[in-house]
Amino acid sequence: MLVKCRICKNKIERNEAYKVVVKNKNQYYCNAEEYSDWNKENESRMKVIDFAFEVLGETTNTSLMKELQGIAKIHTYKKMINYLESDVENIVNAMDKHFEKEYAKIRYFTAIIKNSIGDFRDKIEETDEEFMVELDIVEEVKYTPTKKKSFSDLIDEY
Ligand SMILES: [Zn+2]
Predict the structure, then answer these.
(1) Ligand 1 centre and the CA of 41: distance in Å?
(2) Same-domain check for residues 17 and 52
(3) From ligand 1's centre to the CA of 129, what distance in Å?
(4) Contact 84, 51 (CB under 8 A)
C-alpha cells in the first residue's frame, strides 16, 4: 500500500516510510532525515517570526509572512535566524525610525534581511563534516601555486 509523504508529497510504500504517530493518527514521511530537517526548519521559522514580532510588534499583516517565505525559499529559515541573531544590534538601530504605515516598516525590515543575508556565512558547525570537506577543497585550490609565465612562455603561446 502506498502512502503520501506529508512534506514532499511523494508516494512511498507504507512499510518503508518513516511513521510518526500524532494524536493517534499515523503520519508518513520519506525518511527520518527528511522529517528531522523539516522539523528544524519549522523551528527556525517560528524563531524568525518571533524575532520579526520583537522588532515590528505583533502583526497579522500577511505581507510579512509572504516576504519571509520568499527569502526562506532561497536561503532557508535556518540561515535567516542565524543571520538575524548575529546582527541584532544593527537591525534594531536601522529600524529605529518613524514609519507612516506598517507595510512600509515590514518592507524595510525584510529589505535589510535581503540585502545582508546573501553575504552572511553561517558559522561552521563542527559536526558539519560535509561542509568541512568542501572547505578543504576550496583551501587547496586557493593555495595551489600558480606558475608565473615567463617571457618565453608567452612567446610560445602566440
Ligand atoms: Zn518526502
Answers:
(1) 14
(2) no
(3) 24
(4) yes
**All three cell numbers of 81:** 535566524
Which residue bears the cell 585550490? 141
Q: What pLDDT digit, counting tens, does each position of 114-140 carry?
A: 999 999 987 655 455 555 555 555 554
Alpha-carbon Rg for the chain in angstroms: 23
For residue 10, the enclosing domain spans: 1-30
- The cell numbers describing 98, all together, are 518613524
> Helix (H, G, I), strand (E, B), or coil: what is residue 1?
coil
Q: Convert the pLDDT of each residue in 32-67 to its tens digit.
A: 999 999 999 999 999 999 999 999 999 999 999 999
Are 89 and 55 a contacting pair, CB within 8 Å?
no
Beta strand 18-22 with 25-29 is: antiparallel
The grid cell for 92 is: 534594531
Same domain, 20 and 73: no
The rounded Å distance from CA 53 to ligand 1 centre is 31
